[in-house]
Amino acid sequence: MRHGLAGATYAFGLAALAAVAAILTAAMAIQYVGGELPCPLCLLERLALFGAAFGLLANLRGPYSARFTGLCLGFALFLLIVSTRQTLLDIYPRPGHAYVGRAVFGLHMPVWSVLIALALLAANAAKLAILGGDAHMQGVRPADFPLVRRAAAALGLYVLGLCVINLVSVVVQCGLGQCHTTGYALLP
Amino acid sequence: MMVAVFAAMTLALAALWLERRTLAVAAVVTSLALGAGLFLWEIWSPETGFRMPWIQTRLDAPATAEA
Predict the structure, then answer these.
(1) A interface with B, Cβ–Cβ below 8 Å
(2) Reported ipTM
(3) Contact assessment for residue A123 and residue A12, using Cβ atoms and an 8 Å cutoff
């Protein structure tokens, strides 16, 4: 029973981490393939997703701790605050303010970010309601679940790679100053 | 500033990968704090502060007899 609960907890973590990694991949594909530069608040929304991935990954790779669930929830809340403010900034079209980029399935990125933040919060709430706290994870080692260990290692490396690419991209787009969506600061 | 925010997050993920958990947590908390500060700086305006006057939440005052 305890082993089953631990497996379910790890499965939740892997699924959530894969979803976050897919969302970050899509955002970066839109930037590099679609040619849409992210605005400063869009970059902060990416930061929140990397932070949520950090919390999920920490629980998958080492001793399970509710503190990392708390970090994941904290970054999800940060994502909700930033994306809600950005939606309210752009919801009323006026000079100099409009949704950045094109709509995906009818919704713009900040609106998607609100939904993603709510999904992260709801998924964590459901996990806590169904599986309980982390008492069943005490003494459980990821090494007891070889598939989880391998998948977490691969996803962790992938998310780290995305973060490195994003850091280089931010350096090229913003330099050491403000970020603009009109072009890359360090490119001619 | 944005570079510092993402540099801290990259350090956090790299430290987590290398099993340096204390460093990883310190870096991710630093990244969140810098990000929150940058968010407040980005949304603050010299004219309106943190308010959003383009979102009308009160009805206009009723017209007076003189008007």
Answers:
(1) 40-41, 43-44, 47-48, 50-51, 53-54, 57-58, 61-62, 71, 74-75, 78, 81-82, 85, 88-89, 91-92, 94, 97, 156-157, 159-160, 163-164, 166-167, 170-171, 174-176, 179
(2) 0.91
(3) yes
